[in-house]
Amino acid sequence: MSKSDIFRLSPRLAIATSQTLNIYSKMKNNTYILHEGTKNGQRYFVAASGFTRESQNRKTGDMIQIWIMLTDVNPVAAVQSGLDAVTICEGCPFASGNGCYVNVGQSPLAIWKSYHSGNMPKLMPKDYVKAFKGEKVRFGAYGNPTLIPLSMVKAIAKVSAGWTGYFHNWKTMPAAKRNAYNQFFMVSTETASSLELANSLQLRVFHVSPVQPANTVECLADSRGLTCAQCQLCQGWSKPAKSVWINPHGSKTAKASAAAMA
Fold first, then answer.
1. Which residues, in sequence order, are CB contacts of 221 under 8 Å at separation 6+?
2. Sheet of 162-167, strands arranged across
3. How far from each other are the two terminal CA atoms of the chain, in whole angstroms?
4. Left (φ > 0), alpha (ψ -120 to 50) or beta: where does 183 sit?
5. CA distances from 248 to 42, 209, 229, 245 (A)
6. Labelling 238: which of 55, 151, 166, 228 has CA 20 to 30 A away?
7. What sign results for the dihedral spanned by CA atoms 85, 45, 48, 138?
8. What is this structure's pTM?
9. Contacts of 71 (CB under 8 A, 6+ apart)
10. Residue 146 — very low, low, confident or very high, per pLDDT cuts 50/70/90?
11. Cα–chain-centroid distance for residue 203?
């Protein structure tokens, strides 16, 4: 039974006490550390949230959210300094405040503070079935999910009920590694030239631009009002379908549109 099922069938029971809620939850904590590593000399951590509290993201729906964050620099400062663009968001033209829809002062900053509070336990691979079985997973609520080891991606995807994911650093990756991650995640493109290159490499793409390219399907969140949890098209070549297009959105739409059309 999912978290949303619990609240639908018996809201009063589900919210009566935290102890009652934990009876129905598979996990004791809402957020866990999955991995820690370095990128271009900067430490980062990977965290997964949404195990005991349903995500409030209306576009994605109820999905476990996986975050890739710098360890030693908070996300607001990273964006302001441009450090995000050469580490966790490498390859994204929308990084450093140039069009990204993510408000780093909200959920990303809260996750970063929670990590530094010392109250975020580490989730071990032996517990992946317990944690992720039956759950929809959003790889990369913030940051490139290619910073998650491929073995970990495979293990989580295998037991999950579905997932989504997108990566921007595909241009600088060795072909074998890029293709391996494209089996699970969509390659992110924005400009006409990046889309042309991705198509020439036979990659499955998620294209963000004011102009819809030929042979793509519009994101079903926009065209049909589906959540990502319902749609599940953005699974790389694990879902052999057309590439996906979406109009830029969020508070920095104008900047994103200008970057895409450059």
1. 59, 227, 228, 231, 246
2. 31-39, 42-49, 64-70, 136-142, 162-167, 186-189, 205-208, 243-246, 216-218
3. 47
4. alpha
5. 29, 6, 20, 10
6. 55
7. positive
8. 0.89
9. 36, 42, 43, 44, 45, 115
10. very high
11. 19
Provide mean pLDDT across the span 169-175. 98
Instruction: Tell me the per-residue pLDDT of 223-244, one tens digit each, with 9 for 90 and over.
Output: 999 999 999 999 999 999 999 9
Query: Under a CB-based contact definition with an 8 Å cutoff, are residues 87 and 39 in contact?
Result: yes
The tokens describing 217, both together, are 């399907």
| Angle in degrees, CA 64, 234, 40, rounded to 5 | 70
Length of the chain, please?
Answer: 262
The confidence score (pLDDT) of residue 129 equals 97
Distance between CA atoms of residues 171 and 194, nearest Å: 9
Which tokens go with 190? 């924005």
